TrEMBL record:
PROSITE patterns named among the record's database cross-references: AMIDASES
GO MF entries: catalytic activity
Family matches, as InterPro entries: Amidase, Amidase_CS, Amidase_dom, AS_sf
Top-level taxon of origin: Bacteria
Boundaries of every Amidase domain copy: 26-451
Protein's UniProt name: Amidase
PANTHER family, alphabetized: INDOLEACETAMIDE HYDROLASE (PTHR11895:SF76), TRANSAMIDASE (PTHR11895)
Lineage: Bacteria, Bacillati, Actinomycetota, Actinomycetes, Kitasatosporales
Amino acid sequence: MPNALHQLDATDLAARLRRRDISAREVVQAHLDRIEQVNPAVNAIVTLDPEGALAAAAQADERLARGAAVPPLHGLPIAFKDTHLTRGMRTTYGSPLFANHIPDEDDLLVDRLQRAGAIRLGKTNVPEFAAGSHTFNPVFGTTRNPYDTTRSAGGSSGGAAAALAAGMQPLADGSDMGGSLRNPASFCNVVGLRPTPGRVPPHPGANLWDTLSVPGPMGRTVADTALLLSAMAGPDPRCPISLETPGDAFRAPLDRELRGLRVAWAPDLGGFAPADPDVLAVLEPQLRVLEELGCHVEAACPDLTGADETFRTLRAHSFDLAFGELLDSGRQALKPSLVRNIEQGRRLTTADLTTATATRSQLHLRTLDFFSRYDLLLAPVSQVTPFDAELEYPREVAGQPTHTYLDWMRSAYLISVLGVPALSVPAGFTPGSLPVGLQFIGAPRADLAVLQAGHAYESATQHGRRRPDLPTT
């Protein structure tokens, strides 16, 4: 076998498992060995159940040996984000308040992936309550970037992205409110999709009508990401915003002719999200790739007036709903920036929420108008490259100081408020060998078209094939 099993794409592994060229036990053991070798340097996987994973792998092998039909993720190991409930396995949210919390149910996403054949390895690290796009917390410490362990892996799905990039798992789940799938994907040279809200139904949750935070998939390739989406997506009656399209729709080949596609390039999202020069130096040459694929590329951006204030208002409101009781009972155990976010939510007035709702409606109509003229919007995923892991957030962006941990994330969260699918695809490296992602953004519910465009770009560039060189123990 030319490659170690932990280096193979998930789609390749799945095909080999179905053909019985390899066994689920071999695949799981290869990833457990890789975790032992590199996780001490990265700190991406924070809870591990090797015995349970190997037992589940043995059962998967036995099912296949009996000639039973196997689901699409048969035998593929995955460690779930530590904000997603896992029955019988601790879910800490990165908080001392939940350091020993063992749920008695699975999140819908976790249940669906296991029913699709995925084998639970453990849990991946998160910021405290997934607040912020740098993964550190007082329970498990900091997750480090596999390409430079002095740098951030992003967040809040930072442990997921780092484990994926380092070969500790072939697929990764996550969630995204302000960039929590896209930022870590960009920082770790993997693929991350923020789906259209409702594509992957959240359950349980404090607010099942919420369209700001969405679960979603990550992979080392766009095809792997689509494979995982196919197992996550589909309607559920308990989620009132869930979309009716079945997950199988995302299991078809992604090959598509891009000739004639109308593509807009918005390097600073209309002036609302300036990016550092080293980010743009990597991304601007990538436009030529799209042109060579036959796309018509020009500078354009939807009108994002009011998007920043709307996102911050709705986010603060959601934090008050989700964590207000914790603030009352355990303020001292919460990080100061989280306390400030909850308190901001408590200060909101009815007028604030009414304005945010009305502005978001206007943004939706402007977005539809924009995508009546363009098929695709391209933008930076992150305004900065991976920053010092000892910082809570970068202190300046494009020469301007940052005042909160949200200020450097506008290129991601301004897209979140539009309710559209957005895909981070590896786009190359800085001269200092730091990864940079390109954001592919589509019209509402155009998830498949976004995946197809990202796949075509990925096939033409192969930037995601560059793997980190990590020390092994």
